[in-house]
Amino acid sequence: MPTPPDVFAKVRGHDREEQLRAAREADILPYFRLVESPAAPIVEMEGQERVMLGSNNYLGLTGDPRVIEGARSALETYGTGLTGSRLLNGTTPLHVELEEHLARWMGTEDAIVFTTGHQANMGALGTLLGVGDTVVVDSAAHASILDGIILSKAKMRPFRHNQLDKLERQLQRASDDGGGVLVVAEGLYSMEGDVGPLQGIAELTKRYGARLMIDEAHSVGVLGARGTGAAELFGIEDQTDLRMGTFSKSFASCGGFIAGSAEVVDYLRVSSRSYIFTASGVPAAVGATHAALKIIDSDEGKELFALLLANAARLADGLTALGFRVIQSEGGIVTPVVPVLVEDDWKAVLLWKALYDAGVFVNVAIHPAVQPGGALLRTSVMATHDEETIDRALGAFASVKASFEAEHGPLPAA
Ligand SMILES: Cc1ncc(COP(=O)(O)O)c(C=O)c1O
């Protein structure tokens, strides 16, 4: 009998191995760094205090006493885990209350809560789409959207990021495919921090008789007067069939949801594999999420959205004034994500390290997270950063720029 090749052979000698080893040896690896304190505007990382500009804790609610109490009281009432799926034994009154509140707030007939946002996308797309259907999806879509599409075996027709003419071309092709058509876009793209032309997307979707789903992972709890996301900001809630959100960012917890019509949501409850065949979110996560939602869905929430966006504008303006090229969102829409273009992957890593040593933590996005040659430092703010802390971070950017450029060459200019 012939011996098959070792399926683990790919873990040796892959193209990232050499880069990873060199980066670890030089202590410049920007990933897997240890955060030794709660996710706050200033954190303890690897024995040093650093300004946190690399978190999705947009509203700063992870440390809010009411959110912590929400987690604690759920933990004390329901225990540490539910040890089963929502379908069997993992649904508590907490889950039901959260789903009802989410639907009321989002203005949809119903909402379904998953254990993670990734599972929400997998569960919705992998269940609602099938062989014979076509999904027209923005080329910058998150991995969880792509994973759901792959699971569904639907035909995928990607359109170039935010390009309406390319979307229309794919919708024309999709109408000849013969099956149902779903358009998927995001409300706020996490790396470049840009919002899509959602009104145009909704209009084209309707013209071609397709359905529309918007992933609001980074925009829920951030954009729109009620804070429900980009569909609200652009006034296209009624034209959006499904809205996905996660609790792992502005909601300061872990989990995800799909909001939409009662018939679709109910269908997901009995058909979605990533809902039925996985354990329900732990009580503490669900309790924290609902406590965060109560704050978000109140006048205080509106104050937090305003503070968040004012902080983002302060950081973006400050970085631009220092000569960094900040990627601006179309139409000047301010978002909590403030990306600094570096272009070259290695330069991005080295600039990250210089900032880390100067007491600021940011995220590094290199290919494939961004286009080749589009490496960037992804900075993001919280509503709870104060001006002094943002200025402290700007001071670190200012202090590293000249010496960095002297050693490594110019960075893209503002
Ligand atoms: C656009 C988008 N969708 C979905 C997800 C998945 O959410 P979660 O982290 O809750 O699994 C993320 C998170 O990284 C995201 O950025």
Q: How many E strands?
A: 13
Radius of gyration: 22 Å
What name is given to the CATH topology of the largest domain?
Answer: Aspartate Aminotransferase, domain 2
The CATH architecture category of the largest domain equals 3-Layer(aba) Sandwich
- CATH superfamily (homologous) name of the largest domain: Type I PLP-dependent aspartate aminotransferase-like (Major domain)
Mean pLDDT figure: 96
| Oligomer kind | single chain
Give the structural class: alpha/beta
Helix and strand pattern: HEEHHEHEHEHEHEHEEHHHHEHEEEH
Q: Total number of helical segments? A: 14
Q: Helix share of residues?
A: 40-55%
When the domains are counted, the total is: 2
Q: What small molecules accompany the polymer chains? A: pyridoxal-5'-phosphate
Runs in which pLDDT lies below 50 for 5 or more consecutive residues are: none
Q: Which strand-content bin applies to the residues?
A: 15-25%
Write out the strand line-up for the largest beta sheet, numbering strands in chain order.
3-9-8-7-6-4-5
Descriptive overview:
- With 414 residues, the protein is α/β, with parallel strands linked by helices.
- The chain has two domains: 7-58 and 299-408, Aspartate Aminotransferase, domain 1, CATH 3.90.1150.10; 64-296, Aspartate Aminotransferase, domain 2 (3-Layer(aba) Sandwich).
- It is built from 14 helices and 13 strands.
- Strands 3-9-8-7-6-4-5 form a seven-stranded mixed β-sheet, with helices on both faces. A three-stranded mixed β-sheet has the order 1-2-11. It has a three-stranded antiparallel β-sheet with strand order 10-13-12, covered by helices on one side.
- Strand 7, helix 8 and strand 8 (242-246) form a beta-alpha-beta unit.
- The chain starts with 14 loop residues before the first helix and ends in a 6-residue tail after the last helix.
- The model has no long low-confidence stretch (mean pLDDT 96).
- Bound molecules: pyridoxal-5'-phosphate (PLP).
- Pyridoxal-5'-phosphate is lined by residues 116-118, 121, 142, 144, 186, 190, 215, 217-218, 246, 248, 256.
